Amino acid sequence: MTVKTRFAPSPTGFLHVGGARTALYSWLHARANKGEFVLRIEDTDLERSTQEAVDAIMEGMAWLDLNWDEGPYYQTKRFDRYNEIIDQMLKAGTAYKCYCSKERLEAVREEQAAKGERQKYDGCCRGAAPRADDVPHVVRFLNPQGGSVVFDDQVRGRIEISNEELDDLIIRRTDGSPTYNFCVVVDDWDMGITHVIRGEDHINNTPRQINILKALGAPIPEYGHVSMILGDDGAKLSKRHGAVSVMQYRDDGYLPEALLNYLVRLGWSHGDQEIFTREEMVEFFNVHDINKAASAFNSDKLLWLNQHYIKSLDPEYVAKHLEWHMKDQGIDTSNGPKLAEVVTALSERAKTLKELAASSRYFYEDFEEFDAEQAKKHLRGVALEPLKLVQQKLAALTEWTREAIHQAIEDTATELEIGMGKVGMPLRVAVTGAGQSPGLDITLELIGRARSEQRISKAVDFVADRINS
Ligand code: GLU
């Protein structure tokens, strides 16, 4: 049997971290079992579903590189199929037309409530004589009476629900449209889904869906319901806890590897391992190891993982993601060092790509002014001599390499009998405009000769002006 899983988002908004984690678990279960992964867009709620949301969900999936083998299917394109099955069920007697008016249903519910009974359809139209086709009606599923539905949830273990608790579910509305739970059943069947991994908010739908599948003679998939993600205050994760949209994490400077690694561990574990490559996730993932308990989102840990991946992934790869941020921050990278080299130089210092982009601006663009505070501290009268001497020594270099640059700085300090910092700090402010940068040798090398020399000379003038004023 080929394992087949699906991710079935309702396109009513962006891809949020909870959805992404469910998608990841379904994707991993398929990949871990050499199976297939289906993307299905559950857009039956016409009022709330939008094309922008479909695009946003797919953009999020693509960014995380959760590739699907089949789909995207759209439920709205399958209405004929759902109706075909409903008609077959009407013939087979596993569904029936219900002519009850709203008022009657309301009265039944009130009476049940008054008696303290469970409120549900009383089965009035079960076995009712069919009326003319144009008499308004809904179609209800004939839920089995007596007995119970039992399923072995892959995450939560055995779950049993008595049929007494289940309604004769409406599967087609008066306007002829099939209802959500029914569409899901037909889809899971038609698409050959073997494992349904989804949020625990759907756990109540499962026994109903199993009953319909049984009535259709369809195989019953395995189900696994994943717990909620909570914010740090124990409430359900929402916008007020910070970013919840996957693409917001891209915008904030996270690598997809970091978010995936974070999400896989949020509710799943493999021993005490924290860092997982994509290959390791696929190798070790087992749906039975998903945690039943809700998990709390921890932004610090995500940030830590992000820093880990910025430091440890191939700089060429990180550079591809950094490129997006450079553009986003309006930095033209066509004139300056290769981005991968900037990544190598700065990766120890940045927690996010957004930060990394911002702090690499001086490699590509000249700055108007030195940072006022740093200039006040380091571009003072005493800096004139070391700046001028290092300027001379740099000008004399035959090659612009970090080794040669380093030697020039060291020689300056030795000759003037001052500490390296007395040369280094003025020089740093001179070439970067700011007080922080990677090692000066590599910084100057990457900034390039012409730009470095021009900036040092600007700093020399700045100090000279200051002495004279
Ligand atoms: N469309 C549902 C949702 O977005 C998922 C249904 C399912 O996975 O069965 O919550």
Please explain how this structure is put together:
There is one protein chain. This protein is mainly α and 469 residues long. Among the domains are: 314-365, Helicase, Ruva Protein, domain 3; 366-469, Arc Repressor Mutant, subunit A. The chain contains 19 helices and twelve strands. The strands form five sheets. A three-stranded parallel β-sheet has the order 1-2-3, covered by helices on one side. A hairpin with a 3-residue loop joins strand 6 (148-153) and strand 7 (157-162). Helix 11 (315-328) crosses helix 12, helix 15 packs antiparallel against helix 19 and helix 17 crosses helix 19 (449-468). The longest helix is centred in the last third of the chain and has 20 residues, at 449-468. The protein is elongated and about 105 Å long. It binds glutamic acid. Glutamic acid binds next to strand 9.
In a few lines, what is going on in this structure?
With 469 residues, the protein is mostly helical.
Question: What features would you highlight for this structure?
Answer:
single chain; 469 residues; mainly alpha; Helicase, Ruva Protein, domain 3; Arc Repressor Mutant, subunit A; three-stranded parallel sheet; three-stranded antiparallel sheet; 19 helices; 12 strands; 11% strand; binds glutamic acid; nucleotide-binding; Glutamate--tRNA ligase; GluQ/Sye; protein biosynthesis
